[in-house]
Amino acid sequence: MDTKKEQDSSGMDDISLSSTSLGCYTIQGLKQLYEAHQLCDATLMAEGRIFSCHRALLAAFSPYFRAMFTRPFRECWERQVVFEDMASSVLQRILDYLYTGELLLTPETAQDLFTAANRLVIRPLQEIIGRFLADSISMDSCLGIYALAYAHNHQALLRVATRHITINFEPLSQHEAFPGLDPSTVISIVSSDKLLVSSELIVYHAVQRWVRSQPAEHLSLIKKLLKQVRLPLLTSEEITVVQKDIIEEYGHAHLQWEQLDGEGRLRKSGGLRHGMYDDWIVSLGLFVSNMQGGVVERLKTHFLGFSLQTESWEEIPPLMYLDSSGFLSVGHKLYVSGGQRLNGSVLGNLHEFDALTGQWMQLPSMSTPRREHGFLACKQKLYALGGRSGRSVLDSAESFDLVQKSWSPIANLPFAVSHFASATLKNKLYLIGGFSHTRASGLAHRGILIYETGSDVWNQVPLAFQCYKSTAVTMDNGIFVIGGLVEESSRRETPGTVIRALISGTHKCFFLSKDGTVSYDVAIPELPILVLPPCAVQWQRRIHVLVGNTIYQWKPGEPSWTRSRKTAPNTRVTFLTVVNGVTLRVPKKNLQPLLREASAALTAVWVADN
Which residues are in the BTB domain (predicted)? Predict the structure, then answer.
């Protein structure tokens, strides 16, 4: 028996050794055959230099070679491939990689190797060089890398290069490499919404600089390029500069004008570029406008904006007092839905604030008055979900079409629920926790409701603990649930029971995957201070939490929250509580006069043919 066990054990060791060493043996064997020119059945040629290779190996790595050697092409029977426009050193490095797995990359050779790898469709090599180029990108290389990624439709590398260019567009447009870009690459750059430019005049000057660098080749494209310049966003002073420049440069030109307001300018031009607005955290809170002897004379729903770029605070015109209303933003517009007045009446109103005009307007009301409800945006629609109306908890839901300006019913929730956290992720709406009856009844919802906007269907996912009045923030292909009231006890609630453990709230946060399950692999530090409900938003992969007049920030991977240096300024109102927050795009101050008044706008420049 012992001998048999030893034999079995020995056999297992042989099998393990054989399987783990197979890759090494294969690589060593191929390398030896390649170096000795043995069993080679194909030749590759570049710059007159011949490389003996094995068709099976080339075809295994490259669909390009597989098609060439298995289909009725000349190379199939001649077994020779000639590369007229590839350097022999590049081909040598590629073959060394295929036969040995080794690759020597330098900034000087990476781009040529990337082009060859894409031509030959060697995907592992494409990814290796793509990562190398992304990691080594710089001001001197980003334009060339962008052109390379754009030409080969390499999305990962294109994203890295795009971010580098959009952040540094103005100095890069004056870089020596800019005139050498091909027309399609220039058009793709100057048409981007993401350019961090404070004025459209910067884009205009970049276009003219590219044209003037090689007038014989580029002048014929001037009309096409000027169509990418968002002329309606030019101020009157900037238009004077453009007019003078065009007339001096091209002689006679036809200018097209139109009377436009702010919305008209955005439609005609395609919208503001990223550098033309500031991102604000706008917090919705309850403030006392006047208090005498402890008596509130006037209470309003107030809005305070914190510019994330400049770390400065601004006030937004207030609304009448509304408690527990829905609050969200879409681009440069805020929306406030429902809420409860001081007298206890619940409203179905929908208000819109336009950062272009700085004014509020009332839109069509919801079919059902709501408070403590979900209010989310997805694909040009607003969704009002569940909540309460008086003493009743609601299971109804409806959507508002931002284009048609009308409300429509959608599928009811599986049951009535309120006081939940809510978020939008990949065309789905998530309602997290909450109460399925009044708070006094104490029936918490231990689960997550997920609404599919495309199919109008609700699904349910269980939750191991109670979650009440938290805030949800979408980021990193998941949902971060911040603070609120959480109870991990498994005891069963009964009607009429007050959940005492929920009263004190929690500093804890957790992460939901897109399927609605809690992921404990994502570590989130506890909130530095307790606030109910948390006012949390996401901006540039950071979560920002407003506590009183202070902002705390956290980025995934960091061990703790950090406190912003700036605090809210003294205002004419007395702060009571912040109940919600969103990010809002607000035009920079130099553009606000242009967008808030109707005036003559330059909409097209037709340069006459010379």
Answer: 40-107
